[in-house]
Amino acid sequence: GENVEQHPSTLSVQEGDSAVIKCTYSDSASNYFPWYKQELGKRPQLIIDIRSNVGEKKDQRIAVTLNKTAKHFSLHITETQPEDSAVYFCAASRGYGGSQGNLIFGKGTKLSVKP
Amino acid sequence: ETGVTQSPTHLIKTRGQQVTLRCSSQSGHNTVSWYQQALGQGPQFIFQYYREEENGRGNFPPRFSGLQFPNYSSELNVNALELDDSALYLCASSLYGGNEKLFFGSGTQLSVL
């Protein structure tokens, strides 16, 4: 089955710097890659997602890149702010629902942005 | 528009007991997925319900079971609780049996003593 590895497990940056979190996946049939942000004691929230037919997607200060050949995808946060501090999870999915389509999550990256 | 709501927020049970967790999906969403999140880990898929039927199941034993009601709300039942069942249980809603753009609830923190 699918396996998603996420690195680093913790990341500390200065406010204004960029942060990059990387994930690798094992199932070449995976075609949907979301990123979720989970603040302490709160629900995971979708921040950006990408499909396998797209190499890059941006939304303001957040971008995701996908390399299908190498089976890895990355989250890039520019101009980090203290409110970006949270745990970030990547996930991969084969497709649309069912037991083969369910999301497989990485173990998370705890991002700390220091003022 | 209402978000995904879960109840209760916290629960303490003893080993061997049974527990029922509840979830109301986001308005307009007809699919509910349940995930288990152990401390320091990513969410792990338990099962999904769509059109009141199980639409996929992860690697969890049969003592984990569920229901979906006509109003799309859902229950997760766990029988014969074990210590390792202690975790945050998250419910997520989506559309048409899909796993894209899941909207998560805040979860139920279950402690098994």
Structural notes for this entry:
The complex is a heterodimer of chains A (115) and B (113). Helix content of chain A is 3%, strand content 53%. With 115 residues, chain A is mainly beta. The termini of chain A are far apart. In chain B, strands 2, 4, 5, 6, 9, 10 and 11 form a seven-stranded mixed β-sheet that branches. Chain B is 0% helix and 50% strand. Chain B is globular and about 35 Å long. Chain B has 113 residues and is mainly β. Chain B has strands at 5-7, 10-13, 19-24, 31-37, 44-50, 53-57, 64-68, 74-78, 87-94, 103-104, 108-112. In chain B, a hairpin with a 6-residue loop joins β4 (31-37) and β5. Chain B is built from no helices and eleven strands. Classes of the chains: A mainly beta (115), B mainly beta (113). The A-B interface holds A 4, 6, 32, 34, 36, 42-46, 49, 89, 91, 93, 96-108 and B 4, 31, 33, 40-45, 48, 50, 55-58, 90, 96-107.
Q: What's the gist of this structure?
A:
The complex is a heterodimer of chains A (115) and B (113). Chain A has 115 residues and is mainly beta.
Order of helices and strands of chain B: EEEEEEEEEEE
| Radius of gyration of chain A, whole Å | 14 Å
Helix and strand element order of chain A: EEEEEEEEEHEE
Count of β-strands of chain B:
11
Measured on Cα atoms, how large is the radius of gyration of chain B?
A: 13 Å
Mean pLDDT of chain B: 93
Largest interface: A-B, 27 and 28 residues
What ranges of chain A have pLDDT less than 50 throughout 5 or more consecutive residues?
none
The average pLDDT score of chain A comes to: 93
Name the beta content range of chain A. Answer: over 45%
Q: Number of DSSP helices of chain A? A: 1
Helix-residue proportion of chain B: under 10%
Instruction: Show unreliable segments of chain B.
Output: none
Strand content of chain B: over 45%
Count of DSSP strands of chain A: 11
Our count of helices of chain B gives: 0
Largest sheet of chain B: 7 strands, mixed
Overall geometric form of chain A:
globular
